[in-house]
Amino acid sequence: MDYSSIDILLVEDNENDAELAMRELKKNKLTSNLYHVRDGEEAFDFIYGTGKYVGVRSIENLPRVILLDIQMPKVNGIEVLEKIKADGQTNAIPVVILTSSNESPDIQKCYKLGANSYIVKPVNFEGYSLAIKELGLYWLLLNRPPEL
Amino acid sequence: MPKVNGIEVLEKIKADERTKAIPVVILTSSNQSPDIKKCYGLGVNSYIIKPVEFEAYAKAIKELGLYWLLLNRPPE
Hints:
The complex is a heterodimer.
Chain A: E1 8-11, H1 15-27, E2 34-37, H2 40-48, E3 65-68, H3 77-86, E4 95-99, H4 104-113, E5 117-120, H5 125-142
Parallel strand pairs in A: 1-2, 1-3, 3-4, 4-5
Helix pairs in contact in A: 1-5
Chain B: H1 6-15, E1 25-28, H2 33-42, E2 46-49, H3 54-71
Parallel strand pairs in B: 1-2
């Protein structure tokens, strides 16, 4: 695994959702440079090259896009978003919130903290697969990422 | 743009609590790295370079419309 050129960092504690998202992105040939972490603490370690990522990851090689769930153990998605967008080294990374929360206060809060996009996970399998494909197309092909 | 350029518009929208949650997509012919970096730093939601050809431009507009109006959940 090449940890230095990651297109998508997926931060998701639900194994089924994560597996399906990764399969869908690979199936559509959008990218195979994906990495999945299961909570906010591991997301920080991955981004900053700390904890178990010391020596294999560095802040120099930021992911092109972060897909971020909100409800997660240890450190939740809102805290991850807040830290990424408050740090000048990481604030340019596009962060797409991918959550089952359709609660208006969460949505408003995420946009104010600088989330680039907020997607409510469709509940059914087909809807979820399609949403992943569309967001992959948008953020990997249409959107121009910052030079990271 | 004349008078007030897009970077100034973006900066003002994202600095004002009443407007900062509005998704802003930059749509420009500028492929200049400093512009791109600057826009992300100011809080732009997305940055799209206008394709030069008619068909590609029309397709980009369609795709961004689908994404921001159907897939993305806007703030209230």
